[in-house]
Design a protein that fits this description.
mainly alpha
C-alpha cells in the first residue's frame, strides 16, 4: 500500500492523533467516575489523581496536535482553488460545492471541523488545568467532578462529530 503525503497527513491527523484523543477520553472519564473518596484509600486517591492529571495533559496536547495538523497540513489541500479547466476531483472543496447534493458536506461538515472542533483542545486544556490545580479536591467534591465530566463530554462530542465529518468528507471528496 502506498500513501501520498496528503493521505499520510490525513491518517496522522484523523486516525492516529484523533483516535488517541477519543480513546484517552474514555480513560479520563473512567478515572473521574472512579475517583471518589468513598471508593478509594488515600494512597489510591493519590495514584488515581496523578494518573488523571498526567492523562488529561497528554490528552490536551494530543487534541492540540490534532487540530493543528488538521488546520495547517490537511485543510490547505482541501480548500485549494482549482486552476481553470482542472478536474475538480483533485480539489475537494470545489468538488463538493459544485454538486448541490454534496454541498452540505462542506457547508455544515467542514464548517464544524473548521470552527467547532477547536472547542475540543480548549476544553481538554481546561480539564487538564483544573485536574492539576484541584487534584486533591476532585475525590471529595462531586460538583467539581461532574463539572469536569461535563467539560470532558463537550470536548468529546465536538471532536467526535468533527471526526465523523472528516471521515465522511474524506470518503466523498478525498484529498488526493
Amino acid at each position: 500500500m502506498e500513501l501520498s503525503s496528503r493521505e499520510l497527513w490525513t491518517v496522522v491527523h484523523g486516525m492516529i492523533l484523533g483516535a488517541i484523543f477519543l480513546l484517552a477520553f474514555a480513560g479520563g472519564v473512567a478515572e473521574l467516575l472512579g475517583l471518589r473518596s468513598s471508593y478509594e484509600t488515600p494512597l489510591g486517591e493519590l495514584k488515581s489523581s496523578r494518573r488523571l492529571v498526567e492523562g488529561t495533559w497528554v490528552m490536551a496536547v494530543v487534541a492540540w496536535l490534532t487540530v493543528i495538523t488538521g488546520t495547517f497540513f490537511v485543510y490547505p489541500w482541501y480548500r485549494a482553488k482549482p486552476v481553470s479547466g482542472a478536474d475538480l476531483i483533485h480539489y475537494p472543496r470545489s468538488y463538493l460545492l459544485a454538486n448541490p447534493k454534496m454541498a452540505e458536506w462542506h457547508n455544515f461538515g467542514m464548517e464544524w471541523k473548521e470552527h467547532v472542533a477547536w472547542l475540543a483542545p480548549i476544553l481538554a486544556t481546561a480539564v487538564a488545568y483544573v485536574t492539576w490545580r484541584y487534584r486533591n479536591k476532585i475525590a471529595t467534591d462531586p460538583v467539581l467532578r461532574r463539572g469536569l465530566i461535563a467539560l470532558f463530554s463537550i470536548a468529546f462530542f465536538a471532536a467526535g462529530v468533527a471526526g465523523v465529518f472528516g471521515a465522511f468528507i474524506n470518503k466523498v471528496a478525498a484529498t488526493r
